[in-house]
Amino acid sequence: MVKHIILWQLKDELSAAEKRERAHAIKEGLEGLQGQVPGLLAIHVQIDGRLETSNADIMLDSTLDSFESLKGYAVHPAHVAVANGLVRPYTAVRMCLDYEVQ
Predict the structure, then answer these.
(1) Which residues pair with 63 in a beta bridge?
(2) CA 4 – CA 16 distance, rounded (Å)
(3) Strands 2-10 and 58-64: what pairing?
(4) CB distance 29 to 89 below 8 Å
């Protein structure tokens, strides 16, 4: 199995209300990929409960059955639509950590 973890910071020019709205839209869009992308075993987007020590606004925590499935996820049309329509236009910083689970 492979874990695919992403952290995003939303753009500074967004108001607090816009950030909340965008975060909820991103969560809904990404979690909606469950069952659409082959090999995607679990997907969760964390947007609530952040402590003041956090410097990221959104976390994606997903599990795929293999590295090949992760590569397929990256180019899957449903994922690309969410990434291009809901995520990239509103995020300024993206960090990724992919690792194998034994």
Answers:
(1) 3, 42
(2) 27
(3) antiparallel
(4) no
The continuous run of DSSP H or E covering 32 comes out as none
| pTM for the whole structure | 0.94
**One pLDDT digit (tens) per residue for the chain, 102 residues:** 999 999 999 999 999 999 999 999 999 999 999 999 999 999 999 999 989 999 999 999 999 999 999 999 999 999 999 999 999 999 999 999 999 998
Cβ atoms 1, 63 nearer than 8 A? yes
Q: Where are the domains of the chain?
A: 2-100
* Beta bridge mates, 46: 59
Specify the amino acid at residue 45: V
Written as six digits, the tokens of 59 are: 């976390």
**CATH 3.40.630.10 describes domain 2-100:** no
How far, in Å, CA of 26 to CA of 85, rounded? Answer: 9
Coil, helix or strand for 78? Answer: helix
CA 20, CA 99: separation in Å to the nearest integer? 29
